[in-house]
Structure formats: C-alpha cells, structure tokens
Amino acid sequence: QVQLVESGGGLVQAGGSLRLSCAASGYMFSSYHIGWFRQAPGKEREFVAAINWGGTITLYGDPVKGRFTISRDNVKNTVALQMNSLKPEDAAVYYCAARSKYAVGNWYETSRYDYWGQGTQVTVSS
C-alpha cells in the first residue's frame, strides 16, 4: 500500500512557476511508477506527466510539454513537478498517483493507477 500526499499548490500569475511535490509512504516507493494528473471544474481528469520507477523514463501530456518537468528522489520518496510558464488553462486540482512497475497498459489512463493522493489546487491568474 502506498500513501501519497501532494503539496506546493497555490495562486500564481500567468507566466509564473510553481513546484509541486508528492510525498509517498508505505511499501517500496521505488517499485512504483508515478504520474501527475489534473482536473479542472467540469472536465475529466487529464494526464500531465509520469516517471518510471527508476527515474529514467518520463512522459508528458501535449499541453505541458516543454514547460513542466517531472523528477523523483527514491531516497526521499518524493516526486516533484516543476511547472514553468504557467497559463490560466493550467489551473486545476493536481493529483499524483502510483502504479506498480509491473503493471501493463498505457500510462495516460487514470484506471491504470492504483493509489491516489488528495490533490493540491493550482490557480493561475491572467
């Protein structure tokens, strides 16, 4: 079982930056791939980024490519999402999620993830 807690959300002006953190506890954090998703009011949960268990493979959703960077520290059991050049359309609740490194299926689907955090709100003013 993995427990995930997000932090770092807040209010930022368009063009600004935020760094989100996902702190994990529980059994063998390094056995899990981690993803970030976001959900804006009235919209479906959307894939943002993912990183494999070893930190050697990263994936990004098209809307954030070139602006967001995902990284992990398997000693500190944390995953970070550095968000630069923020736009008003990036505003959402951001969730981190974990899936076993043995799981199959694409990384973009929420159903492929077993554990979720409670989310952290990101607001971007124009």
Question: Your description of this structure?
Answer:
It contains no helices and eleven strands. With 126 residues, the chain is mostly beta strands. Strands 2, 4, 5, 6, 9, 10 and 11 form a seven-stranded mixed beta sheet that branches.
Using only CA atoms, what is the Rg?
Answer: 13 Å
| Overall mean pLDDT | 95
The biggest beta sheet is recorded as: 7 strands, mixed
Please give the alpha-carbon distance between the first and last residues. 40 Å
The multimeric state of the shown protein is: single chain
Uncertain runs: none
Helix percent band: under 10%
Q: What is the chain-wise order of helices and strands?
A: EEEEEEEEEEE
Strand content: over 45%
Q: Please tell me what the overall shape is.
A: globular
Q: Structural class, from helix and strand content?
A: mainly beta
Number of helical segments with 4 or more residues: 0
- Total strands: the figure is 11
Outline the secondary-structure elements.
Blueprint: E1 2-7, E2 10-13, E3 18-26, E4 32-39, E5 46-51, E6 58-60, E7 68-73, E8 78-83, E9 92-100, E10 115-116, E11 120-125
Parallel strand pairs: 2-11
Antiparallel strand pairs: 1-3, 3-8, 4-5, 4-9, 5-6, 7-8, 9-10, 9-11
